[in-house]
Amino acid sequence: MIVLFGLAYLVSQLAILVTIDPIRSDLLRLQCFGFSAAETLRIFRAWQENGALDAYRAHFILDDVHWFWYAGFFTALLGRLFERRGVTHRLDWILVLPLASGLLDFFENQIQQVFLSTPDFSTIVDPLPLISTAASDLKWLLVLIYVGTTVVLLSGRKLAPRGPRMTGARSNHG
Q: Whole-prediction pTM value?
């Protein structure tokens, strides 16, 4: 599963990077700082004027499923690393973060596609950009946590020793 999801994620990521090349710097600004309708409109109108809006529209063909590939890849990879490195079960919540970030990504994409649904961008109204940007920023925060955890585990470090997992009745040993 790691290899399958990893290859799909890699191919998807590279194709998205090629597609968004004309808008790369503004796309990050839109995702992380496009809190208002005014800022989002400014970016969309600039893309429209320089002919780059088509690249933004086109990237959704890939990005609408991209979250599935990276969520699957990092969940499978972290699960394997947790098992091999003996990570404590108290940190199992980290295994949910790739899916959570993926769903936030999908939600953000849906809002952004609403913005593109009218030629005059009349659907870009507050507070929708704030909601979209908050979802994106939370997604990136989660990505930092689980990618950071992945890097630590791949480097051979241990997060915390795995203790015995209690199933059923509690032990009465002291």
A: 0.89
